[in-house]
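Slide 14.
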Amino acid sequence: MEALDQWREAQPASFWDDDSPFAAHLDPTALERVRAFGETVAQEVDPEVYAAEVNGPRIHARTRIEFDPAYHRAGSAVWASGVVNAGAWEQAAMLYLLTHAGEAGHACPVVCTAGLIRALRGEASDELRNRFLPPLLEPDYALCHRGAQFLTEVQGGSDVGATTTQAVPDGDAWRLHGEKWFCSVADADQFVVTARPRGAAEGTRGIGCFLVPRLVGGEPNGFTIERLKDKVGTRALATGEFTFHGALAYPIGALEDGFRIAAGVVLNTSRWLNAFGSAGLMRRAYLVAESFSRHREAFGRRLADYALVQENLAVMKAEAAAALASSVEVTALVNHIDAGTASDEDVAWFRILVNANKLVTALAATAVCRRGIEALGGNGTIEDFSPMPRLWRDAIVFESWEGTHNVLVAQVLRDLARMDAVDVVHERVGEIDGLRRAVEEPGGVDGRRAVEAIVRTLQVTRLLEAGDEESARDLG
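Slide 15: predicted structure.
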């Protein structure tokens, strides 16, 4: 019992690591904010998550969501950091630190809000931007608006082109009618919703991207929440099924650009940051498992002294470092695009890597969190013993968010063909065996292997460049 108490006392007071690759990309002021947020997550957010999950969200009057007070205490700490309005490097670092607590019910709202902010800044009319952007930037949790994205429908799933939700013109605005099947951040104040304007073409060409305020005149805006999803993970987060009955909506950008905005701006923001979420889950799993192995004794020796335990920990550490390395590469591209300094090849490389990286990091996170459970033995399965079960459950959900594995592979192969970008990949990471053949003959299993190889090759290269030969070796 003494060793157990010592282990619990040894848990970090901050999740920030001064050796983090983010440090080189943050100015002194941003670095101090990120360092402080590492402490906030460890000391204020993480202790609230268990209660927020156990006493999960509930529907009230089919239009409002009620949460445990622990959920709101965590949210206040998260929003006060300014994460939703931060620059690319700072935002990525904060999201990475936040997910050390698991999804915590607030990582998804942060990411969805960030995507909506980008859409409004880059695509919306001045009138729409001036009206809806300011409350999204508010750091006071009691006053802020949070964003959500409602794209999925039961008959379509990842096939957004199968959308049947209809948009009907109403003066300068539109009215939406239809059902959305998987609506995370069901308590959000502003929804990004895909819908097909009446008479528009079939498929993705006819999809519009709309902003739907939750309230109009202080009353629910033409929607009902049919039920909340009982998910395996992200259980503090409210995810529901919505029906729109003439909800007032405003187009974000031109109607014909709807799919491009929804996928190219909103979803790509989520895919970029989702990878940092996976990296954060992995690093926390490693921290818990590594410290446990140093305090727990079995058969007269510390667990850390056994070769098989050492190997397990080495793989966990390597995967976390690799996910961070490839996600940092994506962030450098985002930063260049935001600054207007990206070349055409940079843009193409981003389109390819943001999808491929989301796939590889999400798969790795589930495996690493599973290894973490193994490292704690039977204790690893106990919900109130450590965050390990929560990390593993959340990682499974991270795999499906923003596109299933096969959808992401297909997107990468289409982008490689459309942009004639195989040579771009080979210039950036070296020759990928079978990639050109997979692009020319899409649909086979070789395509998935080639797409995964893009990221794995990049990860090993970047780890070696950073001098982390041990992680590069253990990754294989």
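Speaker note: The longest helix spans residues 258-295.
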